[in-house]
User: Which sequence fits this backbone?
């Protein structure tokens, strides 16, 4: 077992995730151990179907049925209080997970067109992140704004009275529904003391109060349902305005031109690059500690790819702590990542710092992978790894790569190789590098 | 080309703009306008029934009849659309029958929709045992011929419009459940549902905010189309003598009263054309109106369709 490195942010230990399909059990993850450190950009590379996406979905506990995490551990070290042992999320409740997802860990999906709900406008969609995780802050801000206009209440302006009322109702709602009715009667008393010289002001006040009373009357479930009916939610308008302001601000910070206009649009009215920015905006709304980017650029054209990659790099510098970058594009890995893990058929093959991995690939699979990347000045034929990715319902025994491995040995088909630290901070799971040899090699280098 | 209306639009509030856009789209399509007008006209008739045909009895749904002569009489000054068997007034029956039609159609479909959505969501979103149980129940419903089952249930409950309504509610929901379930299954697998989960949304929120708005269209269209069909089934039950009592203002009842005269007199097949043609035409118009509306509903609701 690998020790959690200093400053780990998220860690999986021997994670086994299986999919129970009609054809049989798909052994998607075969004991995956990865460590994502605080402040780094971590790459997860491998060909399609090697378990990259399943690994991060397991990490967020959103593996889709019929998939199931069968064994292993997932530890999060989100803040200092749990820095010691970490939070074992497989033992936490779904509610806890919901509070983490989108807030501490958020995810950018592969296909921006499909990751946006076609019937929600950008404002609603991005705003949902705020509603889910920053509701209290939104209400507080709205109230602060309303408080401002409440001060002018004594002047008797009807519009201000209504605003004050809305504020009180929002406040009551933020503190639970039971106080709702109490708040209304208190405002009633307060407003009654005001002398209303203006006839119109008096009328509007009466209407607003009746409106509020109507809503305060039904208790419990009924009022909770009534509050969902759009016409009855008018008092929430200031809140919606606050959320909208945040959304527009967020879009602007992501370099989206004309954000106020974009906020009102629907996903299909936007270009692919713009959609991906919206997806990124949703993920960044609550300043996540870990941003998971699941092949964020694979469906975009090259210029947009470059822009999105630049954007993520910038954000990494300014707002997010760590980025988990999933891709099959080795060039991208070289450009963006600090450390990288190569996966093959549900196994972790090799983990190292990017420069180290490209300079000294140890695992035969990594070597094959790097050799098969075309280079600009290449004259000879491109090398390739013979064979195909194995069927994960009946994966090869032992090392899953052995049927395609050019350097396979007799032991490879029998035993799964353990991960060993062959060079400093360069881990590899291959029988070419047994633990004993590692010591000798380490001794040789020092 | 920019008209003055466009310019005024661009200045308006976005919500208002959206509404006006919807309206304009709706009004551009002649078929949806025809559908809407038909439904609105029938609605006005139903609303103004007491004015158009002042009731003679305390129960306005009893059709007044002058005499007991079996043979229907053709349109005349006293009976503008003629009379049916036993001299029931056709015009009165049709006008008050509009009310019955709305009651049955709208109420039954609304109830069907509610049941269908609840069960469809259970089956489609949560799946597993719920799915299995609910879908097998719908299979049972589909295995029995619709009208035969409705007849059997009406006989069991007892005849009358209320019984017909209850029976149509009991028998109508399975198709909604099935359609909604399949749409939910499709929507559930789409990426944005995963994205919503990854952003921390709860099951209920995903259901209400993300899945239903995407999966609802087929069911809503089905519902608006089914209002017509429901009226037809209710009419069929009445026609078979299982619906309302003789002399009740209900279109099915009217056809039932007229069925003996469909073939006409010996030598003159069209002797009683009015008892066949008039109520048949009215029912067809009503059903057609709802069907055209159903298509329009889709064009309006779906944001992917509306910007074409």
Assistant:
């Amino acid at each position: 077992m690998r020790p959690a490195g200093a400053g780990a942010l998220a860690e999986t230990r021997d994670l086994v995730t299986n999919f129970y399909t009609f054809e049989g059990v798909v052994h998607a993850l075969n004991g995956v151990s990865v460590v994502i450190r605080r402040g780094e950009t971590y790459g997860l590379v491998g060909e399609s179907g090697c378990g990259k996406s399943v690994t991060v979905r397991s990490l967020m506990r959103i593996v889709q049925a019929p998939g199931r995490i069968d064994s292993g551990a997932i530890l999060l070290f989100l803040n200092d209080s749990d820095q010691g042992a970490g939070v074992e999320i497989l033992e936490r409740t779904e509610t806890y997970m919901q509070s983490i997802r989108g807030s501490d860990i958020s995810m950018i999906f592969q296909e921006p067109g499909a990751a946006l709900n076609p019937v929600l406008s950008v404002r609603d969609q991005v705003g949902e992140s705020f509603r889910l995780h920053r509701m209290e802050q939104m209400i507080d801000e709205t109230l602060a704004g309303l408080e401002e206009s409440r001060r002018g209440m004594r002047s008797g302006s009807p519009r201000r009275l209504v605003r004050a009322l809305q504020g009180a109702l929002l406040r009551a709602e933020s503190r639970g529904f039971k106080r709702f009715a109490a708040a209304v009667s208190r405002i009633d008393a307060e407003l009654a003391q005001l002398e209303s010289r203006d006839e119109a002001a008096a009328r509007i006040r009466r209407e607003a109060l009746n409106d509020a009373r109507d809503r305060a009357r039904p208790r419990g479930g009924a009022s909770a349902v009534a509050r969902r009916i759009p016409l009855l939610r008018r008092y929430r308008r200031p809140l919606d305005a606050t959320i909208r302001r945040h959304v527009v601000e967020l879009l602007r910070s992501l370099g989206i031109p004309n954000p106020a206009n974009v906020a009102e649009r629907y996903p299909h009215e936007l270009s692919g690059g713009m959609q991906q920015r919206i997806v990124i905006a949703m993920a960044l709304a609550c300043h996540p500690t870990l941003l998971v980017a699941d092949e964020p650029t694979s469906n975009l054209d090259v210029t947009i790819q470059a822009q999105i990659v630049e954007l993520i790099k910038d954000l990494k510098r300014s707002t997010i702590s760590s980025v988990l970058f999933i891709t099959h594009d080795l060039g991208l890995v070289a450009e963006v990542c600090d450390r990288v893990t190569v996966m093959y058929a549900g196994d972790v093959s090799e983990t190292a710092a990017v420069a180290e991995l490209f300079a000294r690939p140890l695992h035969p699979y990594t070597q094959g992978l790097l050799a098969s990347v075309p280079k600009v000045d290449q004259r000879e034929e491109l090398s390739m790894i013979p064979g195909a990715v194995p069927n994960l319902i009946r994966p090869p025994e032992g090392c899953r790569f052995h049927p395609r491995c050019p350097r396979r040995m007799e032991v490879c088909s029998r035993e799964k190789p353990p991960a060993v630290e062959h060079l400093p901070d360069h881990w590899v799971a291959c029988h070419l590098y047994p633990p004993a040899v590692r010591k000798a090699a380490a001794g040789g280098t020092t | 080309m920019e008209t003055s209306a466009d310019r005024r639009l661009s200045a308006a509030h976005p919500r208002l703009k959206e509404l006006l856009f919807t309206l304009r789209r709706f009004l551009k399509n002649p078929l949806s306008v025809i559908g809407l007008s038909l439904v609105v006209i029938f609605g006005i008739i139903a609303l103004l029934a007491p004015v158009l045909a002042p009731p003679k009895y305390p129960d306005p749904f009893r059709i007044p009849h002058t005499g007991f002569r079996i043979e229907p009489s053709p349109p005349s000054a006293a009976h503008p659309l003629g009379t049916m068997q036993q001299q029931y007034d056709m015009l009165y029956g049709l006008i008050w029958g509009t009310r019955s039609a709305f009651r049955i159609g709208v109420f039954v479909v609304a109830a069907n929709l509610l049941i269908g959505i609840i069960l469809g969501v259970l089956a489609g979103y949560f799946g597993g045992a719920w799915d299995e149980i609910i879908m097998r129940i719908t299979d049972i419903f589909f295995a029995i011929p619709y009208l035969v089952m409705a007849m059997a249930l009406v006989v069991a409950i007892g005849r009358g419009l209320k019984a017909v309504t209850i029976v149509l509610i009991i028998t109508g929901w399975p198709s909604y459940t099935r359609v909604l379930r399949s749409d939910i299954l499709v929507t559930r697998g789409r990426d944005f549902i995963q994205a919503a989960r990854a952003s921390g949304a709860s099951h209920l929120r995903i259901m209400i905010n993300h899945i239903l708005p995407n999966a609802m269209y087929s069911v809503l269209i089905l519902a608006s189309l089914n209002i017509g069909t429901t009226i037809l089934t209710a009419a069929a039950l009445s026609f078979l003598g299982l619906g309302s009592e003789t002399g009740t203002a209900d279109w099915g009842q009217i056809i039932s009263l007229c069925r003996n005269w469909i073939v006409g007199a010996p030598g003159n097949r069209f002797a009683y054309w009015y008892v066949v043609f008039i109520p048949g035409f009215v029912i067809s118009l009503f059903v057609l109106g709802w069907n055209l509306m159903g298509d329009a509903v889709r064009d309006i609701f779906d944001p992917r369709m509306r910007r074409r």
